[in-house]
Design brief:
alpha+beta; three-stranded antiparallel β-sheet; two-stranded antiparallel sheet; 4 helices; elongated
Length: 166
């Protein structure tokens, strides 16, 4: 949940500070003490990394998916975006209760890549920002979090060629 300790009234420009045990949360409705207008708190989304994932990570993810893995690993209450592989095709889409985006041409599938080479080329050019904020990311709202570098590396490990990784 996005929150802040101060907010500027969009009507009068007054900077309003939250109380000791309070915070302004995105979507809250407050009254400005200066102009007495109602204001809906509208906080910007936090920045996301724009660095492309690169070939090394994309290759390791492709191998993981070909071995039967799915990113992220799910539990019975998981509802979100995942990467999966089915019958040679790589799928990026919303998971459903019984598994990943297992049906090729249904609305839960955001992107279908026909083979490993196409998947690696696509994923290597992606970034956290691109898979979470781009208009074609396929997420239902900007509040949702999709695939991130942290999630990918949790499944396949950090890049062994990167400095500082042993």
């Amino acid at each position: 949940m996005r929150e802040t300790e101060q907010y500027t009234c969009p009507h009068c420009g007054m900077v309003v500070r939250a109380g000791a045990d309070d915070a302004f949360r995105n979507g809250d409705v407050r009254v400005c003490p200066g102009c007495r207008c109602r204001m809906t708190i509208d906080l910007p989304l936090p920045p996301l990394d724009t660095a492309p994932y690169g070939n090394s990570l994309a290759e390791r993810v492709a191998d993981f998916l070909l071995a039967g893995g799915e990113i992220p690993g799910r539990h019975p209450y998981f509802h979100g975006v995942c990467l999966a592989q089915l019958d040679g095709a790589f799928l990026y889409g919303y998971a459903h209760d019984s598994g990943g985006p297992a049906f090729y041409d249904t609305t839960p599938v955001i992107r279908r890549l026909e083979n490993r080479a196409a998947f690696v080329a696509w994923l290597s050019a992606q970034s956290d920002n691109r898979l979470n904020r781009a208009p074609d990311a396929g997420l239902n709202s900007p509040e949702e979090v999709g695939i991130t570098r942290r999630l990918l590396e949790a499944a396949v490990g950090p890049d062994p060629d990167e400095p500082g990784v042993s």
